[in-house]
Amino acid sequence: MRLSRRGLLRAGLAGTAATALGGLATGCAVPTGSTGRNMVLWYWSGGLSDTVVENAKARYDSSVTLKAQQIGGYYRSKLITTMAGRAHIPDIAGLKGEDMASYLPNADQFVDLRTLGADRLKSQYLSWKWDQAIADDGSMIGFPIDCGPLAHYYQPAVFEKAGLAYEPDDVSREMGTWEAFFAAGERLRKRIPGTCLLVDVLAVYENSVNQGTQRYVDKDDHFIGDQEHIRTAWDRAVEAKRRGLISDIVNGTPDFNAATERGLLPSQLGASWAAGDLKLGLPKTAGKWRVAAMPGGPANNGGSFLSVTKACREPERAFEIITWMLNPANQAQGFVDAGLFPSTPASYEMKKLREPDPFFGGQITMDVFGPAAEQIPVAYNSPYDVALGQPIKDEMKNVGVLGKNPDKAWSDAMSKCRRIADHLGVTY
Amino acid sequence: MAVIEQTPPAVAQPTPTRPKTGFRTYWHLYAAISPFYLLFLSFGLIPVGFSLYLSFHRWDGLGSMEWAGLSQYQYLISDSDFWQSIGNTIVIWALATFPMIFLAMVTAVMLNSAVRFKNVYRFAYFLPNVTSIVAVAIVFGSIFSTNFGLMNALLQAVGLDQVAWLNTPWGIKVAIATLMTWQWTGYNAIIFLAGLQTIPSDLYEAARIDGAGPVQTFFRVTLPLLRPTLLFVLVVSTVTGLQSFAEPQVLLQTTANESTFSGGPDHAGRTMVLYFFQQTFDNNDFGYGAAVAWGIFLVVVIFSIINWRLVQRRGEE
Amino acid sequence: MASIKGSRRRGIALHAVLVIGLLLSAFPFYWAVIMSTHTSTEIFSYPPKLLPGTHFLENVRHLLDNIDFFGSMFNSLLVATSVTFLVLFFDSLAAFVFAKFRFPGRRLLFALMMAIFMVPAQLAAIPQFVIMAKLGWIGSMTALIVPAAANAFGIFWMRQYMRSAIHDELLDASRLDGASFMRQYWHVALPVVRPGLAFLGIFTFMGQWNDYAWPLIALTNPDNVTLQVALSQLNGTHGTTDYGMVMTGALLALVPLLIVFAIGARQIIGDLAKGAVRG
């Protein structure tokens, strides 16, 4: 290895100079957002319809360059860290519904959409959805993308082989309650060894919580995760585990995809947008799925928003773009492309939403999602829900995956919640 | 890399500078060492001071800081998750380090007696250590995959049951430890080999004349003389082992809506540093994150003292 | 006769064990090659594939579609080379001072430097992030390069090297010739410590190339990341992880590192071992 001293010095000095200059240049004018005529949009894979994004790019091409970036990993953490880092903050940012409550205390990081005239569009959107994006001070930080009515996705061929109901209407009726659903799962397992009704305990637990009108913390910052509604969901998941309905596969892993492709996980409970994930992740299963009503009744899971950040230099333009992207016609397109269920009731009657979907064997899935969306129970989402729901979910997983004693797990979860509540200033 | 400084720099050296005093005489020397100290000041000392300040506050990185007194530390002491992460770190470290030191020593002794191809072996054994941990963790993730991994295929081939490696607490620890053992065995074998080569061959000769067998020779001659090297290896693997982060982070990264720092089922792979990252950058709890960092610092200090004690005692013998 | 035969047999057994160890060391690399030449469907079938397949180019194409592989590789190269040169220059200069000169505060400054050595990196991570946010460096490579431009390990290492390698007579002679401090550093010190620099350079380069924790946090602009961060994004972005593609990325990311290692293997293996034994 030979190092020329002159080369070393030159490179060293050049490097130093470059970094020093770079530092100075950026130090003078800190670019917090995008530069040039760029308008940066952050979302996640499947968060928006590709068609709509492309159309928006073309439509606003004369005034801005819309740069749509799909962010991988843990989205909320990436966005908040970027905001704390004060650089490369997107102009328009998608906000996931389940994270909404934790963005609200930082409403000052976003442009209040009411100041851009959002109120005149309010009547077109589902009112419970709209209200989720309103902070305590009344400012509105997110514009509704979709909502996530839950449904029961299943593979009819496997159900038929197991001697279960397999037509959507029959499945909806015969597996309409959790009890009937579990009973069907036992039959499935007996008839086709190796198959499991549910991937993990959370499929029961979280969906059951979503079916309620209360979550972990109430409006007065009081912890309610120890009450009946959570305990019922917990017990139901424990029962599913006891009856042997839970697989030992980790959701979202290659093992999960492979098992689903092979029909070993023929039933999946998910929101309307989960259809997009199925189409994207398991293209080979096209035509093998149907949709039926959610066991135990309708509920919402997720559904997101678009926000305009304070780093945006042209909020009016950004607002114009997002309201166009999320108008009823484009929301209908979002449903077709990515299973994003519209938050605009006007879309429900559009022809696009009433077309047979080949991925679901030609079923008109709106027949299932439509009625479900109308009956969604509304719950209060607290900014502390994530922190106080996590220990319960963690212990739930310990029961599901590790076979921990459910009573021990519950009391561990409660004592952990008590400590966290104390730390966060939530009364117990 | 931690290198133990044993001889203090004060041991008299001929001093080439003329006996002048004052800053003016020495300004060029100060200038020459200044870059390090400037960088240290701006990215070391000030941040460390600031992190102490931060640990007495509540801050989400966006809003304003709120004075929290000692409450972050009070919470830290009673935080079972933090204690669990310390336990995880130590268990993984032990699972990786002891087999690794044993294997490395055996390899070194064999390399020392093998005459041919020594350089080929050294090159190949060192290779795992230069690879990027992200790439390696991805590869190991697929080796330990439940249904399609090589490990379970091997188990099945010999008639054993599959093990859900990355879905059980001990399986996770074993997988991470295996990765670390793989990465560091060759590296340490080469360091042991260098230690072995400093042992004068007449000592072996003498042992042979006294009628000692190879095993006796190893325990009577090799091991005592290898002790300084062994301690070096132990110190380095303690420092790196206590800070393990990328291995569990990449190996146990799940999909979509979960924290990428959660460390798998029951957080069995959540090491101290992983926990720090989770609290800080996933929960955006910068104040508590700072307190966790000081907790980690304390653990590292305690381990350093234990190491130092070991060195001292050996010195007295 | 018998003893010669016995020792030969022992030699063969020895090499057999060593070769097994060698195969274990090399196996994950081979496994990465196998995975990167198969499609995901082939990978997720039983029994596992043990021979290379034919889909390497297809996987490369998927990889290039999914991440800006060359862009992030360029970033990694930029960071690793600039840090390496800065470290070589600053560390050797400081080491020269500590090794060969006496001045007030020398011992204190040196002890301070050794103390810094012990502080875990994450202690400073949050404030570093905040400071860099104020400077506007978050999301750019500057955030990676500047704090790494000089380090205690390198100064310590070079100082140890220089103490024995640079003879005081040489320095005295050059001083009598009227050489300035920088001339002494440049013309007397550096030429004799080239092997030490080579080790430090390779060591720094590899360390920077593989650095992961800090870039993961500091590089917030998804269009502008280093290779390690890009790879981790590839692994588990969504349920659709394409293992063949991810493995191809992991494999290709190793190539520059292996080249550097192959160039400097003798140096780095030898020096590392020597340094450890001396320490």
Structural account:
- The complex is a heterotrimer of chains A (428), B (317) and C (279).
- With 428 residues, chain A is of the alpha+beta class.
- Chain A has 17 helices and ten strands.
- In chain A, the strands form three sheets. In chain A, strands 2-1-3-9-4 form a five-stranded mixed sheet. In chain A, strands 7-6-8 form a three-stranded antiparallel sheet.
- In chain A, helix 9 packs antiparallel against helix 10 (228-242), helix 9 packs antiparallel against helix 16 and helix 16 packs antiparallel against helix 17.
- Chain B is an all-alpha fold.
- Chain B has a single domain, classed as MetI-like fold (Orthogonal Bundle).
- Chain B contains twelve helices and two strands.
- Chain B has helices at 23-54, 71-77, 80-113, 118-130, 133-143, 150-157, 169-197, 201-209, 214-242, 246-251, 272-282, 286-316; strands spanning 57-58, 66-67.
- In chain B, strand 1 and strand 2 (66-67) form a beta hairpin.
- Chain C is mostly helical and 279 residues long.
- Chain C has a domain at 67-234: Orthogonal Bundle (MetI-like fold).
- Chain C has 14 helices and no strands.
- Chains in contact: A-B, A-C, B-C.
- Chain A: It holds the Pfam family SBP_bac_8.
Quick synopsis:
By secondary structure, chain A is an alpha+beta fold.
Core attributes:
heterotrimer; B: mainly alpha; MetI-like fold; 12 helices; 2 strands; C: 279 residues; mainly alpha
